[in-house]
Amino acid sequence: MIKITEENNRVILEGVKDLQLDHTFDNGQCFRWYREEDGSYTGVAFGRAANIGCIDGTILLNDVSLKDYYEIWKDYLDLERDYGEIKRKLSEQDPDMEKAIGYGHGMRILQQDKWETLISFILSQNNNIARIRNCVEGLCTAHGKPLGKYRGKMQYAFPRAEDLAKLRPQELEPCRLGYRANYIVETAKQIAADDGRTLESLGKASAKEAYEYLLSLSGVGPKVANCIMLFSMEKYDSFPLDVWIKRVMNQVYHIEEGNVKKMQEYATEHFGAYGGIAQQYLFYYAREINSRRRDRSEC
DNA sequence: AGCCAGGCCCAAC
DNA sequence: GTTGGGCATGGC
Fold first, then answer.
1. CATH class of the structural domain A243-298
2. How far is CA A123 from the centre of its chain?
3. What is the distance between the alpha carbons of residues A17 and A57, in angstroms, rounded to a whole number?
4. Is the per-residue pLDDT at A297 higher than 80?
5. Residues 52-111 on chain A lying near strand B, CB distance under 7 A
6. Which of A153, A223, A261, A262 is catalytic?
7. Is the pLDDT of residue A45 over 80?
């Protein structure tokens, strides 16, 4: 059980298991969290800026009220889910999965805002993570509501659909989104048309229903749709197949390169309801061992 | 300096 | 229904 205390505009969580900040914020599922010198992360979600740190296994939600903890951060960090159980089941599948989970053991799938996830992953196509972050930040700075200065930097909410829907693609040129600017404006129009109601309703819709609606949006194909369902709609059987995972499916599970259908079937058969979570452990592991980034041990 | 990136669209089969 | 070229941009 998590022990929750509040003091000095900060919420302290003791007894949180299976959460390591870099595994969660630096695994490619989100683009607006920045690592500080002390290993904490500063970012914006659902229109709130915050800093999240970890000392000796205790999670510190800095500049967070108890009210916001219950209304936003508890679910955002997916703290009600038992990842120990999920990891145990997935680890039984094969030694490579076990190894990937050992590597990213503190990863949790954030429950992000649907609209923000939609736009962010349209921007992700044929792009790299470092630049996706710049694209998202540029979009927020240019078109998001200012939230005031926080930790030495002006912070902005993610832009609203109705604001982006008013733009001409050309007006997004300063954000350097490339050809994706057209998709952003088109999709913003589609979402703003019913004030985002359909998009929001997809959380309770079937995976099939959500998938079909998402594919109807400009710039959303199978891979992006699966990311949106996994990272913002709690549809954990969604299995996004990007270039990294395709590589893993080929090299580790020996499925012919490009046989997407067989890859999806393999995921369904072996990882089932937690396919998307399995996919994220594999993604993080595959990328980390290929980037030999600096060691980041922490609690 | 090139290669490549959490792919999708659209035309041509 | 499947396949392949084209695609803006900049990190590395």
1. mainly alpha
2. 13
3. 8
4. no
5. none
6. A223
7. yes
pLDDT beyond 70 at A144 = yes
pLDDT of A147-169, one tens digit each? Answer: 999 999 999 999 999 999 999 99
A173 CB less than 7 Å from any atom of strand C: yes
- Give the CATH H-level superfamily of domain A114-232: Hypothetical protein; domain 2 (1.10.340.30)
As given in the structure block, the two tokens for residue A20 are: 């390591």
Query: d(Cα A61, Cα A41) in Å, to the nearest integer?
Result: 10
Same fold across A114-232 and A243-298: no
The CATH number that domain A3-80 falls under is 3.30.310.260
In angstroms, the CA of A24 and the C1' of B5 are apart by 21
Distance CA A281, CA A123 (A): 22
Q: Which residue has the tokens 């050309």?
A: A170
Q: What is the pLDDT at residue A82?
A: 98
A223 is catalytic: yes
